[in-house]
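Lab notebook, bench 4. Still working through the backlog of constructs that have no structural model yet. Next entry is a single chain of 206 residues. Request: give me the structure tokens for it.
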Amino acid sequence: MELAIYNIKGEDTGRKAQLNDAVFAIDANEHSVYLDVKQYLANQRQGTHKSKERSEVSGSTRKLHKQKGGGGARIGDINSPLLVGGGRVFGPRPRDYRFKLNKKVKQLARRSAWTYKVQDGQVKVVENFTFETPKTKDFINFAKNLEAEGKKLLVILADNNKNVYLSARNVPGACIMRASDVNTYAIMKSNAIVLTEGGLEVINNL
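Model written out:
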């Protein structure tokens, strides 16, 4: 599969980039994408939620009234979940939400995500570029030239580029990533993806 290569002005250079069919044109597996995104989001959760249960609430354990004969319900002590200020029944406890996913499933998910995005025409390839100085305006013009202004834009570079990163930092919806760090979630949440030639070379070999 081939895609046209553009420059940062959005002009077609006349050259073609070769996309590895084993990465960008597979028989996509939707369920693997779901699992990988689910794992990524689960790993972001701190799991520090906690509410006090009956035994943890500060209050007397004296029985409030007799068990029978009062005409009311059995209630126990003032820490009862039935009363305001009492403990909570089966409240949240600290826990770890992470779960294991096989490497081959994650690889299939990434490749499936790439396949979906290429099929939807949301992937463009540009020449390797940098900015002389960090300047948000330069990045906005770059996005506008590639018809990605106002979109959730993912720009994938071969390696870290401080000037490009700082230029995009204040642009809503823009994300700069190294090719080796790209994950399924980042691909799927973007609706415009710009691959530099160097970044594409890395991804073709992943």
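Notes after review: The chain has a mean pLDDT of 95. The helical segments are 21-24, 30-44, 103-119, 136-145, 162-168, 184-189, 197-204. Flag for follow-up if needed.
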